[in-house]
Specification:
heterodimer, A: about 90 residues, alpha+beta, two-stranded antiparallel sheet, 3 strands, B: about 140 residues, Glutaredoxin, two-stranded parallel sheet, two-stranded antiparallel ribbon, 5 helices, about 30% helix, globular
């Protein structure tokens, strides 16, 4: 029984090491793997929009910062392609 | 960018700038340091607007542009961070929802959607680079 527990522990440890190495390779390094867990992982299952759902609205600012508009104001006439992103 | 040029008469485009993905004070990437794209995560709207304007200037970015507010309303509504693509049809319904970037960010899927509806836009094949020989030096 003691041996079995030891082997289960070793196996789990090995799996964790393999997962971390794989994540490091994917992310670009061990530090990036940790950042990925901290910053990206919480976002991975966010959002439940599905095809056919009504597109949500949100107010956004124009580049001058003094004007705003709503995303849904831009929909209707043609399909609207929205590109979300940032500089970095 | 090429998709925008190819389909801007058939579809509307909007870029929405959301919270930074790899700011200097969070998860900074080496590539951003190399490319001199180093910004702290904006804490106020003026900082966010400044970065968005830097982006526009640096890339002469032609797409219509909006900046998410500091409550991250657009980001939250669309689960947008760090990058994601959508197409909303004329009835205001989600017609395409891309995956979470960067690994599942595929502009080619947007092109396919547009091509299916409006036809493919073909580009002449790029000419192979001329081989330098003594004759044409």
């Amino acid at each position: 029984m003691k041996k079995l527990s030891m082997w289960i522990g070793i196996s789990l440890g090995a799996l964790l090491v393999i997962a971390f190495v794989a994540l490091s390779v994917m992310a670009g390094g061990p530090k990036d793997a940790l950042y990925m867990v901290r910053y990206a992982l919480p976002h991975m299952h966010r959002g439940n929009l599905k095809l056919g759902d009504s597109a949500p609205d949100a107010r956004v600012f124009a580049l001058n910062g003094s004007e705003t508009f709503h995303i849904r104001e831009r929909t209707g006439a043609k399909p609207l392609v929205i590109v979300f992103g940032s500089f970095t | 960018m090429q998709i925008f040029n190819d389909y801007k008469d058939r579809a509307d485009f909007l870029t929405v700038y959301v919270r930074e993905a790899h700011p200097a004070d969070e998860w900074q990437m080496k590539s951003n340091v190399k490319d001199d794209v180093c910004y702290a995560q904006p804490r106020k709207l003026s900082d966010r607007l400044a970065i968005a304007n830097d982006f526009i200037k640096r890339f002469q970015f032609p797409l219509p542009f909006g900046v998410d507010d500091m409550n991250n309303a657009a980001n939250d509504a669309y689960a947008a961070w760090p990058e994601r693509l959508y197409i909303i049809d004329e009835n205001g319904k989600i017609a395409y929802r891309g995956g979470m970037g960067p690994f599942n960010y595929h502009p080619s899927e947007v092109r396919t959607w547009l091509a299916t509806r409006y036809g493919e836009v073909k580009h002449p094949e790029a000419k192979p680079a001329e081989t330098k020989t003594d004759a044409n030096r």
